[in-house]
Amino acid sequence: MKAIVYDHPGDESVLKLGEAPDPKPGPDQLLIKVITAGINRADLMQREGRYPPPPGASDILGLECAGEVAEVGANVKGWHPGDRAMCLIPGGGYAGLAAVHFGSAIQIPKTLSDEEAGGIPEVYLTAFLNLFLIGELTKGGVALVHGGGSGVGTAAIQMLKEFGARSIVTAGSDEKCDQCLKFGADVAINYNSGPFMPKVKEATGGRGVDVVLDIVGIPYLEQNLDSLVRGGRLILVSLMKGARGEVDLSKVQRNHLRIIGSTLRSRPVEEKAAIVSNFLRQFGAALEAGRIRPPIYRTVPLAEAAQAHRMMQRSEHFGKIILRVA
Question: Domain check: are 186 and 67 in the same one?
Answer without folding.
Answer: no
